[in-house]
Structure formats: structure tokens, C-alpha cells
């Protein structure tokens, strides 16, 4: 049994998806099952969470004893203006706790928010730059703590910027189609993490 844990914000929770089966956790669970794994999924992600909320999620997940964790965070750090250094440090601390428990972690850092509807075209380059800065700090902190990082934000941003059907009605969260695209981008990284875990245990 592969114990799969999902932590983070509304993207990790699945806000905007039409069905629970369309969320990231559910979609990636199916990918793992297609690869031959028996999977138990636990989602402790909370809509609206920032990196500062990860410690509480990690504490709640203590009894899960997860093998692999997907951690998606960063959008709310930007919208709530959490200082980048503080956000990255909180992310790193969460990863450290999970790694000490023996959990392999894949971090999905800040998405590029420049394509969301409320960002005026004149400010999109500025928003993209701010997202890049936080993502770079997150990547350094996550990797230093022992996590793998999925560098999918630039490609996903290009796709979301050209296809409004990838957004839910709020024009901020992904739609079910958007989650399908994100899951497709993340699946190779999740499968690779599981394969490396199995190889290390062999």
C-alpha cells in the first residue's frame, strides 16, 4: 500500500473542480494506480492556506505515516503578501518534518498568477516576476530540506494564459479541465519520486 498525502492550499484541495474525482489528489492517485500501485490518499490541504499554515497541516498528518507527499503552496503567500523569506522558511521547515518521518516530498511551488483575470495586462510582467522570485526562494528551501521540486509553472502559465476554459468560474482556480492539465504535468514527477523511493528500498 502506497500512502499518498496531499498538503497545501486550494490548488492542493481542489477548489474549482466540478467533482472530487477531478482534483489533483484523485487524478494523481489514478495515475499511480495505473502504474500498478495500491494507493491510500489523504488530503489535509486547506483552501486559503499560506506557507505559514503548513506546520499545522503537517501536525494533522502525523498519524498518516505517508510514503509520498505532494505539497502545493505559494499563491496565497503572494496575495496575502507573506514575506518571501518567511514563506520559504516555513515551507522548508514543513518539508524537514515530513522527511524526518520518512516521507518523500514533491513540492509544487508558486504558480504564475499573471494569467488570472484580475491582473491588468500592463502589470502581468511585474506579477510574473514576483512569482518567479518567490518560486526561486521556495525551490532553494525545499531542495535544501530534501524535497524534489516540480518546475511546471512556466509551461502551465502559457497554457492557462491562452485557454480560459482551464479556469473555474471564479477565474482564479483551475476548472476540472485545468486540474487535468496540472495533473498531467505533475504525474511524471510523482511517478519518478515513487520509483526512486522503491529503488532505494530495494
Profile the largest sheet: 5 strands, parallel
Cα radius of gyration in angstroms: 16 Å
Report the order of strands and helices.
EHHEHEHHEHEHH
Q: What percent of residues are in strands? A: 5-15%
What best-fitting shape do the alpha-carbon axes yield?
Answer: globular
Q: Determine the structural class based on helices, strands and strand pairing.
A: alpha/beta
Number of strands: 5
Report the span from N to C terminus: 16 Å
Query: Helicity level, as a percent range?
Result: 40-55%
Q: How many helical elements?
A: 8
Stretches where pLDDT is under 50 for at least 5 consecutive residues are none
Mean pLDDT: 95
Give, in spatial order, the strands making up the sheet with the most strands. Answer: 2-1-3-4-5
Task: Lay out the secondary structure.
Layout: E1 2-8, H1 10-13, H2 24-34, E2 39-43, H3 54-60, E3 68-72, H4 75-79, H5 84-100, E4 104-108, H6 124-144, E5 148-149, H7 153-162, H8 176-201
Parallel strand pairs: 1-2, 1-3, 3-4, 4-5
